[in-house]
Amino acid sequence: MSKSEQISHMTNVMAKFVGYTGKVLPDDVTAKLEDLHKKETSKLADVIFTTMIENQRLAKELDRPSCQDTGVIQFLVECGANFPLIGELEALLREAVIKATVDSPLRHNSVETFDEYNTGKNVGKGTPTVFWEIVPNSDQCSIYTYMAGGGCSL
């Protein structure tokens, strides 16, 4: 696979991953919500937990974000210094966010602060935010997403 094909493939995979993270909570979080729900004795808390769990079920079933506010996307990247796409990673993550925003869809949360306009693409100066940890003597890469803010920061 050529380098441009690798970049295209990784961009598409990351776009799907970003969209997925807006729709499905991690298994441990879902399990914890269900566990806390079972222990709850308050009627109001029961309604809240029931609603949260139902919302997650519907998001998965209907293939829609679990919250209308999908937050500002952040990436935590543990990347080997020898990873073949290290130099292209920030740009392809940005493109993945643009693609996921249309395909998933995600809410357009990125605003150009000083110009005071919404980009409509969910990207802007400093967004998505990428936090790096470079691992010496490695060619591996792990990428974690976090949608910060709003109701999605369950």
Automatic annotation (TrEMBL):
EC class: lyase
Reaction equation(s) it catalyzes: (2R,3R)-tartrate = oxaloacetate + H2O
Keyword Zinc (UniProt): no
Alphabetized UniProt keyword annotations: 4Fe-4S, Iron, Iron-sulfur, Lyase, Metal-binding
Domain Fe-S hydro-lyase tartrate dehydratase alpha-type catalytic: 13-153
InterPro entries named in the record: Class-I_Fumarase/Tartrate_DH, Fe-S_hydro-lyase_TtdA-typ_cat
Cofactors: iron-sulfur cluster
EC nos: 4.2.1.32
GO MF, one annotated term: metal ion binding
Any Pfam family the entry gives: Fumerase
Family: Belongs to the class-I fumarase family.
Subunit structure: Tetramer of two alpha and two beta subunits.
Name of this chain's protein: L(+)-tartrate dehydratase subunit alpha
Species in which this protein is naturally found: Klebsiella michiganensis
